[in-house]
Amino acid sequence: MDRRRITAIGVLVAAVGAAAAVTLPSFAGEGTAPRGGAPAASDGVAPEVVDAMSRDLSLSREQATKRLRTERWAAGTVARLRGELGEDYGGSWLSADGATLTVAVADPARAAQVTAAGAVPKQVDRGVRELDAVKSRLDSAGGKAGPDVSGWYVDVATNSVVVLAQPGAEAAGRRFAEASGVPAGSVRVRAVAEAPRPLFDVRGGDAFFINNAGRCSVGFSVVGGFLTAGHCGRPGDRTTGANRIAQGTFAASSFPGDDWAVVEVNGEWTPQGVVNDFNGGTVPVNGSTEAPVGASVCRSGSTTGTRCGVIQAKNATVNYPEGTVTGLTRTNVCAEPGDSGGAWLSGDQAQGVTSGGSGDCTQGGVTFFQPVNEILQRNNLTLVTAAGRSAPAAPPAGGDATAPPATAAPGAPPAGEQTGCTGQVSRTGEIAAGRAQNQPDGRWFRAAAGSQEACLDAPEGTLAAVQLQRFTGTSFETVASADTSDGVARLTAGTPAGVYRYRVVGLDGEGAYTLAFSAR
């Protein structure tokens, strides 16, 4: 494939409104903060991630850990506010030091709601949906951008859409924006000497080969296979592992337009919920909670190892020589050929797979990744996590029980656990914001047609959800859910006969939980 460099351009838009310099409070020691405050502890993050953040962000280990705690709180807060604010939500971002979360609002009357959640409100003219609509107009006109325009993205901090143009060719960027018919003032052009290109001959996690020729990298494991970059292969292409043993087949791929692919592996390969740290160990993947703009993010690649930086923008469009790719996340993390398709993590949360970039790890650069949740949702896939990696890709023939064994007598959870939930089968565990566990015991159970009931009891001050998921033949799909916002979460669903599991998801806080459910 053509690897010609293209030069990137940039656009800046004036910020609307002013924000007070408010810093989130410090959280030291153990425990759980009240709703609206950052969690007091950040556990489960591999020391290799903390080390990489310390190196690339010039932080002490204590500062890196503190930043991760704040970012975990910010991710949960943004998720709640986005739903509550609706069309008035104008985007959110963390400050350069990761200590201040700003949430933009199009309606000044909603500012108090943001302040109450522990964030800093900023009044803007356009909600993020309007910004996305502006960018969609640019996407539709992308074929007219020309070689002097390398991409565009939504910049929530300036409440605008940034168009990137080659230095000296800003006029070409302005002509492109005007020709697309976007509202005046919603777009500004920024000149930046970038040359994004797909990172071929690369691997982010373990290497794999395509048709015994091209080489790319594993992104994240999913039930039955793994994710990688779309420019690495097309449906039907066969893969071998780094050991040159037959591995799998590309089942789906999208590039350009998007840059993702799904590889289904054969029975000799087992997807695991970890990422190679290229330092003799692995980093666990415990979920895929999306980190906000300004959050730290680390990339794993076989050429340059683990590299960290911050998320600069989301919903970015890049004009590669092979075509336009939209919906990418822009970062200031460096990458080089050999890193394409690799895994991006914020703490222990999966963020995306490497698409392409500009620059290198000597001079620095810009790298884009395809968000992982979009890939999972569009392909109805289940991310394999470190806590649930024993879950099979498909129910094995024979040997399965009609119902999993109970850990205690029906209706009698173990001593010391919450007692608001009773059921035929009981399981306990530890949960924290951004993490999920599959029950029973990371596996599945068979159920006859009829009604299924479950309840989830979590400590006061935490928020968790329970999901009933049914195996569809290729992945587990959620069929019913409930959360603990009103106390004990209770779920009832009429379901056909099949293979099921429960998934407990932490939304805020941390602590022990009890899950009880029927088993027929």
TrEMBL record:
Biased composition (Low complexity): 389-416
Domain Peptidase S1: 226-376
Keyword hit for Metal-binding: no
Signal peptide: 1-28
Keywords: Disulfide bond, Hydrolase, Protease, Serine protease, Signal, Zymogen
SUPFAM superfamilies xrefs: Alpha-lytic protease prodomain, Trypsin-like serine proteases
InterPro entries listed in its UniProt record: Alpha-lytic_protease_prodomain, Pept_S1_alpha_lytic, Pept_S1A_streptogrisin, Peptidase_S1_PA, Peptidase_S1_PA_chymotrypsin, Streptogrisin_prodomain, Trypsin_dom
Residues of the Peptidase S1A alpha-lytic prodomain domain: 127-184
UniProt-annotated stretches for the region Disordered: 389-423
Membership in a protein family: Belongs to the peptidase S1 family.
The protein's name: S1 family peptidase
Organism per entry: Micromonospora sicca
